[in-house]
Write the structure tokens for this entry.
Amino acid sequence: MNLAAIGVPGLIIILVIVLILFGPRKLPEVGSAVGKTLAEFKKSAKEVMDDEEKNDNGEVKKITSTEK
């Protein structure tokens, strides 16, 4: 399931539930925490993808934990 499957009504319902649970004063803090979490996730995912390096022959070589 991807995020696009939620749709606009689903996002509105989620936002209303978050607003009820945390209140309007905590909403910016919650949004900031979610943004930082997503940024860290993207950074980690990029690092995993960058673990594949090209060797001298131009072939892709996957680095394992024993090679580090």
Q: What stands out?
A: Strands lie at 52-54, 60-62. The chain has a mean pLDDT of 76. The radius of gyration is 20 Å. The first strand starts at residue 52 and ends at 54.
